């Protein structure tokens, strides 16, 4: 099961929300370090559908290749600044 890693630019820390967690709870969208929280409307209308769409996409990949007995592909979305941090390290 997937998870979201949320970077809090207020305190510079991160937290994770797992698919099995209660998405609708205020806890899920609140930074556990500084207690700032993501706007409820943005969370429900943008973040959750995007997460669901990625999960669905991976389920489709799994279905396409289920005859192989292994899941051949999984997709992670990595935000831009992490991508540049990775390429800088190379
Ligand atoms: Zn924070």
Bound ligand species: zinc ion
Strand order across the largest sheet = 1-2
Order of helices and strands: EEHH
Number of helices: 2
Tell me the count of domains: 1
Strand content: 5-15%
Structural class: alpha+beta
Q: Nearest-angstrom radius of gyration?
A: 16 Å
Helix content: 25-40%
- Rounded mean pLDDT is 87
Distance between the termini: 29 Å
Largest sheet: 2 strands, antiparallel
Low-pLDDT parts are none
What overall form do the CA principal axes indicate?
A: globular
- Count of beta strands: 2
Features:
90 residues, alpha+beta, two-stranded antiparallel sheet, 2 helices, globular, binds zinc ion
Polypeptide structure, described:
The structure is a single chain. This protein has 90 residues and is an alpha+beta fold. The chain has two helices and two strands; from the N terminus they run ββαα. The longest helix has 25 residues, at 40-64.
Topology:
Blueprint: E1 3-7, E2 14-18, H1 40-64, H2 80-89
Antiparallel strand pairs: 1-2
Bound molecules: zinc ion.
Could you give a short description of this structure?
The chain is of the alpha+beta class and 90 residues long. The chain is built from two helices and two strands.
């Amino acid at each position: 099961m997937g998870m979201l890693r949320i970077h809090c630019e207020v305190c510079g820390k991160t937290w994770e929300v797992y698919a099995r967690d209660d998405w609708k709870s205020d806890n899920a969208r609140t930074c556990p370090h500084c207690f700032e929280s993501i706007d409820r409307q943005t969370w429900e209308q943008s973040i959750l559908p995007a997460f669901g769409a990625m999960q669905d996409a991976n389920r489709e990949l799994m279905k396409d290749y289920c005859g192989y007995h292994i899941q051949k592909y999984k997709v992670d979305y990595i935000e831009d600044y992490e991508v540049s941090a990775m390429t800088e390290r190379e």
